[in-house]
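F.,

This is the one I mentioned.
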């Protein structure tokens, strides 16, 4: 958070810049390059950003350092409000619909598609930043655009990968991690028998729950909708995915149907599970604790196994950054976003995130963080491999609503816990999805 002391420091920096006649002198516009649009912060501007709680402290430190640099250069104070992953979505929706609250939000997946008319058109920024930095990755760009206009800027993909204890996998009789879903189920059964089970979230976890559910569906060839947006969930492929999920669930520790995004981290660190899926944050949580040195040294990461569909298909939680139309300072907000995407600042943030946040632009894929530790390798390509959650239909209010309502997550949870038969769970999900998709 930028407090009064930081604001005064920023004002001092601004005065110094003015004395030097530099590019950030008072009254001058801020621009990323000569070819980029220029934005002059409004007189007396201050900003408030709602963001998700970080799982990697160094990521937040780098983000706050960039924010302070912006304040020092412009005199515009930026207050950072943090909320849990689950709470960002409803708080952002309330702010959008009420027309007050934070000026900007770092949100999830296609959340901006729920209220596009409440967001500032940032096509000028999206186009210029993309052109200057090798282009946006298509999956991330899709989340940020509506009707060929940028309603948000793609911020990052938070890579999701399988993390496991290498010695426990070997003790279960596997010299290599299985590459297909059949072998993966065999491994989970063997690890359960050894007392070192797996665990994946079937609860309403914004990131991990959605990632796991979509992998289950897509790896077996199922889809929520077709290209036209017609619900096609009730299929033999979906039924195969649900039945596979039931078998995997039998190997999990109890309680995964209530897991949110913090629970699989905690279960792994506590030694309750030896295999789960998570961002790289779980590795660093173990590494920073001297008592967990053995665990950290034993940890490995890999991408999800390939299912009957025959190719790697994964969902990674994706974050975008938007400006609400109710802001009193849209020029200052655009200047702030433009500043964050300057190469030096973006690279510093990506490196600070230690492979937790995967770059939104191709120019940053050679950041040294991706080769600095072997455990980063499974996360390095998240931005290039992710498939948007609305696949295979268009992103919009329907895909955003279906995701926000946890339709797919609940379908698997109902079936694996025995609340419904697989067929009934699919029919329930189909019925709920059709409330959003009206073709």
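My design for it:
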């Amino acid at each position: 958070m930028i407090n009064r002391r930081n604001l005064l420091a920023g004002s001092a920096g601004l005065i110094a810049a003015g004395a030097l006649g530099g590019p950030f002198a008072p009254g001058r516009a801020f621009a990323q390059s000569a070819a980029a649009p220029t934005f002059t912060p409004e007189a007396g501007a201050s900003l408030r950003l709602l963001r998700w709680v970080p799982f990697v402290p160094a990521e937040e430190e780098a983000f706050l350092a960039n924010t302070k640099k912006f304040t020092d250069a412009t005199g515009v104070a930026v207050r950072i409000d943090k909320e849990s992953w689950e709470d960002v979505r409803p708080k952002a929706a309330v702010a959008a619909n009420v027309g007050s609250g934070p000026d900007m939000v770092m949100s999830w997946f296609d959340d901006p598609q729920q209220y596009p008319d409440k967001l500032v058109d940032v096509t000028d920024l999206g186009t210029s930043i993309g052109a200057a930095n090798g282009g946006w990755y298509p999956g991330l760009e899709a989340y940020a655009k509506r009707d060929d206009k940028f309603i948000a800027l793609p911020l990052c993909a938070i890579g999701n990968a399988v993390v496991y204890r290498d010695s426990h996998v070997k003790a279960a009789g596997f010299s290599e991690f299985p590459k297909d879903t059949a072998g993966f189920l065999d491994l989970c059964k063997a690890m359960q028998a050894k007392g070192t089970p797996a665990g994946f979230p079937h609860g309403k976890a914004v990131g991990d729950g959605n990632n796991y559910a979509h992998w289950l569906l897509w790896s077996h060839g199922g889809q929520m909708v077709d290209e036209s947006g017609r619900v096609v969930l009730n299929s033999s492929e979906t039924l195969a995915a649900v039945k596979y999920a039931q078998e995997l669930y039998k190997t999990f520790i109890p309680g995964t149907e209530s897991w949110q995004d913090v629970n699989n981290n905690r279960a792994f660190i506590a030694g309750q599970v030896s295999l789960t899926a998570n961002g790289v944050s779980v590795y660093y949580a173990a590494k920073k604790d001297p008592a967990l040195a053995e665990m950290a040294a034993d940890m490995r990461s890999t991408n999800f196994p390939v299912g009957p569909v025959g190719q790697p298909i994964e969902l990674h939680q994706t974050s975008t950054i938007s400006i609400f139309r109710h802001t009193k300072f849209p020029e200052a907000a655009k200047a702030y976003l433009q500043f964050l995407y300057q190469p030096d600042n973006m690279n510093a943030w990506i490196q600070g995130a230690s492979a937790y946040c995967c770059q939104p632009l191709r120019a940053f894929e050679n950041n040294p963080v991706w080769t600095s530790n072997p455990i980063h390798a499974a996360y390095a390509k998240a931005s290039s491999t992710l498939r948007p959650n609305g696949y295979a239909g268009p992103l919009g209010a329907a895909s955003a609503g279906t995701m926000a309502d946890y339709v797919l997550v609940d379908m698997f949870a109902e079936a694996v816990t025995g609340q419904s038969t697989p067929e009934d769970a699919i029919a329930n999900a189909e019925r709920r999805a059709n409330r959003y998709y009206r073709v």
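The radius of gyration is 22 Å.

Talk soon.
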